[in-house]
Specification:
The structure is a single chain. The chain is mainly alpha-helical. It has two domains: 96 residues; 163 residues, no CATH class. It contains twelve helices and no strands. α1 packs across α3 and α3 packs parallel to α7.
Length: 279
């Protein structure tokens, strides 16, 4: 059964205002809210501790993924309690709608994952070569946020990359692709283009070239989802590509002279609430 996200939002609103069969889950909802609050406080405390210890970049690599997972789990739980359970739908139904659980053969998943990864690496190298020939430079924030120490690289590879690969694909090639396809009257290619533009804009800190390249990445990921029938190849390729950026961008990963810890704090200011430094 396709996931009608427009109806989902309407149903959640109706439940919140007038109540529904989901009222049976109110005690469980309250317990979940309390747990979420304590979890958020714990994550903020961890961020402050790591930042105080002198590694704000490491704090970002750990706290940003933890925060995203907390928000994601909260949203999914709210959906299940307010909409899915009253309809007799399960988490398995949701995973099928998102194309995470499919009948796509494993061989196809491996081939699509490998092909998508190679395409992305080729695009990245091509954009890098073009930018270098034009004398363009990476943005200060993009340079600053590259991992430097062993601990930062470990957190980047093992925590940040898998989180980005899983959650960004579920949001952009999962939920949003479904939503915009419905809004476009079933035109999935228009939906793929729209979600790819949004995906690119979400990486504005990488500069104009980064927005364009990321938008192309997003569209090719959508193509893989549409033709393979599975979201898994996009998740795998996205995760591995983000890991590969440590190698691809290694020659230019060190911040140039003049970018010091103060600049790092300034670059992370949008994430200050995560590290406890404020805005």
């Amino acid at each position: 059964m396709p996931l009608d996200l427009v109806w989902v939002f309407q149903a959640i609103w109706a439940w919140a205002v007038a109540g529904s069969a989901a009222l049976n889950h109110v005690p469980l909802m309250l317990v979940f809210f309390v747990i979420t609050w304590f979890a958020a406080s714990g994550i903020a405390g961890l961020g402050r501790y790591i930042a105080t210890a002198g590694s704000e970049r490491l704090a970002l690599y750990l706290i940003d993924p933890l925060t995203k997972w907390l928000v994601f789990i909260f949203a999914i739980t709210l959906y299940m309690m307010a909409v899915a359970w009253p309809q007799g739908r399960t988490i398995t139904d949701l995973l099928v709608s998102l194309r995470i659980i499919t009948d796509t053969p494993m061989d196809d998943i491996v081939l699509w994952s490998a092909g998508l990864l190679l395409v992305w690496i080729g695009i990245a190298i091509g954009f890098y070569a073009l930018a270098k020939s034009l004398g363009a430079k990476r943005t200060r924030q993009g340079l600053i946020l590259q991992p430097k120490t062993f601990a930062e690289k470990a957190a980047f590879l093992l925590v940040l990359c898998p989180t980005a690969g899983i959650l960004e694909e579920i949001v952009f090639r999962g939920f949003l692709l479904i939503l915009f396809t419905q809004w476009a009257g079933g035109d999935i290619w228009s939906a793929a283009l729209t979600t790819s533009i949004l995906f690119g804009l979400g990486h504005a800190y990488q500069g104009a070239g980064g927005i364009l390249a990321t938008g192309i990445f997003g569209y090719t990921a959508a193509v893989s989802v549409i033709y393979s029938g599975s979201l898994v190849p996009a998740i795998i390729a996205h995760t591995l590509y983000d890991m590969a950026t440590v190698v691809i961008y290694r020659p230019i990963s060190e911040p140039p002279p003049g970018i010091d810890d103060f600049d790092l704090r300034r670059a992370e200011r949008p994430f200050g609430w995560m590290t406890g430094r404020g805005f």
